[in-house]
Predict the structure.
Amino acid sequence: MNLLQKYMENGALSGDPCDRLLQANGDTNVLRPFIGNDGGTYVTRVSPLGRVEVTPVHNAHATLRKDEWKYLDDAIVKAARERLKLVADLRGMGLTFSIPQGMGKTVLETETMSDVNDATVSMDGLKESPNDRPEYELGYLPLPITHKDFHFSARQLLTSRNGGSPLDTSMAEESARKCAESNEKIALGVNTGMTYGGGTVPGMITFTGRLTQVLTAPTAVGWVSATFLNEVLAMRATSVAAFHYGPWMLYVAPGWDLYLDGDFKAASDKTLRDRVKALSGITDIRTLDFLTGFQVVLVQMTSNIIRIVVGMDITTLQWDTKGGMQKNFKVMSIIVPQIRGDFNGNTGIVHGNTA
């Protein structure tokens, strides 16, 4: 039994649906059949040449019409985006690595490379420079699936169609939110990432190579806005000392918002947030819902430090049980953070927390 078969049995997707998924080499579109205008069953597939094709199928029965799938997918994607602030930032800045047919892969093999000597400077170019070669170290990043199930009864679907009212997507939206929250928490490090195949999935605040900074709580006696500014400057200097020069994003816990939006100093026309954002190299300040206390994370937003590995974007699969009277759905994705340091352990992530 391979990993895909084992997962699908544990995830309640077994028998014919699992067989179809295996026969399609993990292409999840085979579990997204829709009813065409002619009453036939179709799936949308991506051809080997990258073209989107609508293909008729004869070994599966569709439950939803194409517009019902679109209505369901729109609700799910919208709900997921509400909670994907960190992941959305990384994807919006192009810090991604896509793995085609990610369902068929369980780990991503990675490597870190050591630095080499500096170049030699001479007048005639005859002086020999040190002839060295970098060293490499292999690592493995697990590619877990984040998923959440919901279902409709056949009667709910019939009632929706006969009454002309849209499907109640509240459970679908809640499933998408839960998946998005899980992805966000793993990327941040609030949820412990999976260990598999000789590797783990660390988050920003659990990555062992991260740098640290002790912060003063804004509730402490004597704290002023300049205290926070100076500590952020110290975090930036720590990153630079580790040979990482930005650009940085500053992520803060919700507890900081009250203080960041206050005046930087008496009768000032700038808030503390404005003053920090004006620092060279800091792109923006973002509040992350799942950071607790007064934590702060300064992150160099480059792909050699952090990126999102996408084995499968958020999608929804469907299959029948109970003689077709229950229509089961699974919201799932393979969206995994990859946080990296160099061969010598240097990184551009500085985690600040109160003592």
